[in-house]
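Holo prediction. Input below; ligand is adenosine-5'-triphosphate.
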Amino acid sequence: MSHTDDPLAPKPVAEGSVLLEARGIRKSFGANEVLRGIDLDLRRGQVVVLIGPSGSGKTTVLRSLNGLETPDAGTVAVDGGPTIDFASGVTKGDRAALRDRSAMVFQHHNLFPHKTVLENVIEGPVRVQKVAKAQAVAEGIALLERVGLAEKQDAYPHELSGGQQQRVGIVRALALKPDLLLFDEPTSALDPELVGEVLKVIKELAEEGWTMVLVSHELAFARQAADIVLFMDHGAIIEQGHPSQIFTAPREERTKRFLDRILRPLD
Ligand SMILES: Nc1ncnc2c1ncn2[C@@H]1O[C@H](COP(=O)(O)OP(=O)(O)OP(=O)(O)O)[C@@H](O)[C@H]1O
Ligand SMILES: [Mg+2]
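Structure of the complex:
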């Protein structure tokens, strides 16, 4: 049975080419060692969900992959390109290479409040990527149609619900045509009844074959969409595996304790 028939069936592991290979990523803020040697392999089409306690370094991992944060040590190679070695100094070009490959969707949508939905969507392509405006508009409208927001293209962010704003945030990331989508708790700031519409869009993107790394504690979603779940604690990946294994038979005591706290917060 394919995953479209049974929503809880695991997705077949994507067998795409290697998109990103990170090794030994380390980062400290002052005396606070936040990442203690993170290894990550991403193949095209793979969906990786990162879980772990607050402060364990999840956001810092995403920011490092996106070039927003510069690790102190470790290497990243993207899509057969040159290996960036953080310990030996990172050039502007290295940072740009990382930034251009990925697009990040944040917990809060971060839309420009004084721009319309469509203006928000075409901002990156037109201003940063120098795409012709007519082309960016046509592509932006097509993307908004895909997430059911075409009729909102001239609305301002404050005229949208939180779920609609977050869907615009996703479209804004897609408009950059990245190789890699990074989501940092994309639904955790939403009212519960709006979570589903955003997760549905992300799940569709996963099924379409987008490569993505998500920080999310929506375990039902992770079960359905993730190829691999990584559990992080204190700046290290403690355990990784298929969601059916991690969620039902975690090997590590720390993973068990963490999942227990999420699943049974009042115990
Ligand atoms: N710019 C910064 N300057 C100083 N410390 C930082 C900075 N960014 C993150 N940290 C620290 O790094 C650690 C990891 O933070 P990070 O945001 O990556 O955790 P997280 O796992 O995403 O947590 P949460 O689940 O709360 O979002 C924390 O101790 C945090 O205080
Ligand atoms: Mg975080």
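Residues 58-59, 184 surround magnesium ion (ligand 2) (CB under 6 Å). That is the main takeaway for now.
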